[in-house]
Specification:
272 residues; alpha/beta; Rossmann fold; 8-stranded mixed β-sheet; 11 helices; 8 strands
Length: 272
């Protein structure tokens, strides 16, 4: 089965493929899809076991990277696109650079975890399934719980509540287990030395130390990489900085436009 793809802009323009984080969908890129459609053909697929691609199974990072490579070859003239990934989408971008670097023109990798985080050893399939059983089915119609999850776990703004609620209600035990286990098991893949495309590696200033070090691991492994750190201020949470494409959409969009166009990056971004 093919992935469902959200599109904006003209197919005659250079293509940008946006890869969303876990539990979301292409809808998470709405500000960038609208803000860049004047000059770019924007494609935001729903990844396997997400949104309109729920029946594309199973979700794996390597398998998703292969599907994105095929998408670029089939849908983008010349078979090469800019790729922007966040969280699990960033991990898929890393995998794509190792598997099919020839389909990537420029890449942005925002918050790709490549090292174990606290308690990750406990996240076996059985334990993740138990986490799902106690935290999702009993609350699928509980707006208060869904809002708490949206704000503190995902860092998604309130304006996205209706679509986030729908995504929360569509979680299945199987998809939740696949997503969490793949996310925590992913490590720096072999072959990144072949990825000569310019790559921008970004992390949030409040993220786990393992996330920040993962960004520095990528800087060391990729031959043409630049690192930046984003800070949304004292009042911002770790989740908001992790999911900053939705919490600072104008800055994120300016960053994307500058990077893929070969222009100077926004001054607000700090060195990594």
């Amino acid at each position: 089965m093919e992935l469902y793809v959200n599109e904006t802009g003209s197919a005659d323009h250079p293509a940008i493929v946006f890869l969303h984080g876990g539990g979301g969908g292409g809808w998470m890129w709405q500000p960038q899809m609208e803000g860049l459609s004047d000059a770019f053909h924007c494609l935001a697929p729903d990844l396997p076991e997400h949104g309109h691609s729920m029946e594309v199974k199973p979700f794996t990072i390597r398998g998703s990277a292969g599907m994105i490579a095929d998408l670029i070859r089939q849908r983008v003239p010349g078979g090469k696109a800019h790729v922007v990934g966040l969280s699990e989408g960033a991990q898929i971008t890393v995998a794509l650079l190792s598997l099919a670097p020839e389909v990537v023109d420029h890449a942005i990798i925002s918050s790709a975890i490549l090292r174990p985080i606290p308690f990750s050893r406990m996240l076996t399939p059985g334990m993740v399934g138990l986490m799902y059983d106690v935290s999702v089915p009993p609350f699928k119609n509980n707006d208060w719980w869904i809002r708490i999850n949206m704000k503190y776990a995902a860092g998604i703004p309130e304006s996205y509540f209706p679509i986030h609620k729908k995504a929360f209600q569509e979680y299945t035990r199987e998809s939740f287990v696949h997503l969490m286990v793949e996310n925590q098991a992913f490590r720096l893949p072999a072959g990144l030395e072949r990825a000569t495309a310019p790559v921008l590696v970004v992390v949030g200033s409040k993220e786990y130390a393992a996330m920040i070090q993962s960004g520095r691991d990528l800087l060391a492994a990729l031959p043409n990489a630049t690192g930046r750190m984003v800070s949304l201020g004292k009042g911002a949470s770790m989740a908001q900085e992790h999911n900053w494409s939705m919490n600072a959409p104008e800055l994120f969009t300016r960053m994307v436009r500058a990077w893929v166009s070969g222009e100077a990056l926004p001054e607000e971004l700090l060195p990594l």
